[in-house]
Design goal:
The complex is a heterodimer. By secondary structure, chain A is mainly alpha-helical. Helix content of chain A is 68%, strand content 3%. In chain B, helix 4 packs parallel to helix 7. The chains are: A mainly alpha, B alpha/beta.
Chain lengths: 625, 245
Amino acid sequence: MLELFLSQILNGVVIGFVYALIALGFSLVFGVANIINFAQGALLMLGAFLTFTMVRLGAPIAVAIPIAIVITTATGMLIERLALRPLQNAPYIAPLLSTLAIAIIFDAAAEMIWSAEIQAFPSPLSKYVVFVGSAYLTGVDFLIIAVSLGVMAGLMLFLSRSWMGKALRATAQDPEAATQMGINVPLMRQFSFGLAGALGALAGVLIGMYYMSVFPQMGIPYGLKGFAAALLGGLSSIPGAIVGGILLGIFESLASGYVGEGWRDVIAFSVLLAVLIVRPHGLFGNKSLDALGGASGATGGIPTTSVVASMAGATGRTKQRVLEAPLLVLLAVIALFALLPVLSGSNYLLQVGTQAAIYAVLAVSLTLLTGSAGVISIGHAAFFGVGAYAAALAGRNWGIPAEAAFLLAGIAAAVFAAVLYWPTIRLSGHTVGLATLAIGQIVYLVCLNWVDVTRGPMGIPGVQRPSLLLGIDMKSLTAQYWQALVVLAIAVIIAFAMLNSPIGRTWRAIREDRLAAHASGVPVSRYLVLVFLVSGFLAGLAGAQFAFLQNFVSPESFMIDTSIVLISMIVLGGLGNITGALIGGVLLAMLPEVLREFAEYRMVAYGAILLLLLRFRPQGLAGTR
Amino acid sequence: MAEALNTKPLVSLTDIDVFYGPVQALFGVNVTVMPGETVVVLGGNASGKSTTVKTVLGLVKAARGDVLFDGQRVNGTPAYQMIQRGLGSIPEGRRMFSEMSVLDNLKLGAYVRRGESKGELDAQIEEALAMFPRLAERRNQVSGTMSGGEQQMLAMARAWMRRPKLLCIDEPSMGLSPLFVDQVYEILAQWKARGMTILMVEQNANMALSIADRGYVLKQGHVSVTGSAAELRDNDDVRRAYLGG
């Protein structure tokens, strides 16, 4: 018993050092460039895979690692130059989503290049073993500890002693003052991305050696763990990152030892969430996170907390043209689409049409939350998934008729959204993005691992469609198509009514300036709970419709990819704009069909569309509202 | 003054227009500073006086007109390069590197001189601390924990570490107690006496005109009055608006 405990602790400490490295890269970029860099994990994955490839091509690993680190450093700096520097005066939400888009593009590209499989990573040192009682440490463990400590000591000296290090710190503390000392602030930002790339690559290689394997999707989970470690340690200090990393390592190591390996990441992301909610200033108290959502103090004007307003001031948006169709027009268009089965009996078209309607409902649901109320949700697939699983379980396990399952799915998702997201309500801006991403991942992992209820990766087959309604057999695809359109019409009516009422105006007020909303006596949390309820309800309906259409649900449909596609949809259409959400939802849902032969490029395309939109048309096709 | 007529201006703004988005902040503003001069820009809130200095510093970009520094056109040159070319800045609101010590703040003031020998820089830090005894007592204190007046001293010493050809100052007396205001102006007078060229923006017209050679008064983005410090003090409009009768 005690042996298991000791060996789990040792494992945790070792992997914790790696997390500390990731955390440092994250903290550096966060401090200097003031953004949460979701691409941090992608750089980690890139470093690991570059090493893997070079070794496979015959290079000695000691040569491959430095080269991989150099390339990853350069990539980090390139990301800053291409995806972030042009967004200096873009809306607040843009840099956050931009790094997310990069992460997705790297992820998908890596799957195309190296296949989605887990690859064996060379780990020559793992054959040396030292026993500590009944627990043991391998050569890799010693390497991890030695390298991490060395790098951290070097970094500490660099930051406190060198001119460059001082300039980096100065930029982090006050970029405008730094400029007036003659410091090239954009270069410092770029440099921080380079450093984060180097740290990420090193961490990636160490992870590869530790687990003796690498896989293309490793970026996002390890990136999130780096955030968790950094937040736990309080973001700004190197010792903090070490403590945060080691604590996280021990937590998840114990979880995997006593609960099951599948729960390791659930624990890690729960820690992230818990820190964000309970102690956003970290164990050692540091308020730098406040800068990502709230007033920045006495110097300078108070920045807007609006996710759609431009950082250069709202002045640029005044001339914006917004395309917003009246409700009747929207309903008429939906009615026109209902004629499709009459015009063509093609099952393929109906299938695509139903999918598009489901995505349109999801986009409307997300645009209420992210667009109108300004709560950046990178985990919207969780609402969708809860709805789908609720509908599937209701029919299969509890014998509830499919018609009632519909409503149940909506209510389940609404309650889930309101209850689970309730603690995140006081977060805003970028941090809420981090929290929702973590929740999204947790829900996915729970669906995957809670085999007793969800049947895990096998999914739930045989989901029954509703049977008869108004004398129409609802089991046919045509009927499902119509049913999806009805759900869409309901979603549009609800969203329209909300957004054009005082409630919608209050949501927008909270988005534009939460402090001002508080100060005007708006019960902010009540309005945010409301938006979670409504958004969750609509996503739950979409989930049920999805379950009925597929006759099957599995965790795969609710991965982070889905959440990102949804964000791309609402950014494409224009945040907070129902017409825009419908256009974006339908267009992007059709995209993989149009690009059939390029299906594997799908996620790259979504990422690229998001990236280009943020750069060139952040207001989307129809304009933000 | 006779020599000054023969030399070229250190800084000249000619017909400058500046916009913030769709809002125009400066309209055809002309300002020059000769070497060795102390020039003050006066004006009320939102008159464009800070914008004028920010244009010189390269913090805002002129949509029209010429910005010349040391005889060269510098329109669009980013601020950090302007500092490298020889400007020094005491920003509005002091802008400390608030988690760093007094010494580190001073060192960063000499950032563009980082190629020089450590001995040289350390000697100048000691000189700066001798000039501001209050800072000398607090050399290892974290700057964010100091009082506003002490921070203003540090901001001044930090800019002085640059050994600037032209020192730009934005509202040095803002939010300071009268005692500190006197101290600030005492130091500025010393620097002026040693030949430093100064361009400053100030609401406290009385104090500013006490050390300035010349001044400009801005009103809604236009230069409304210009002249020697004495002329401005005697100008009825200026007196009514900025000198309290």
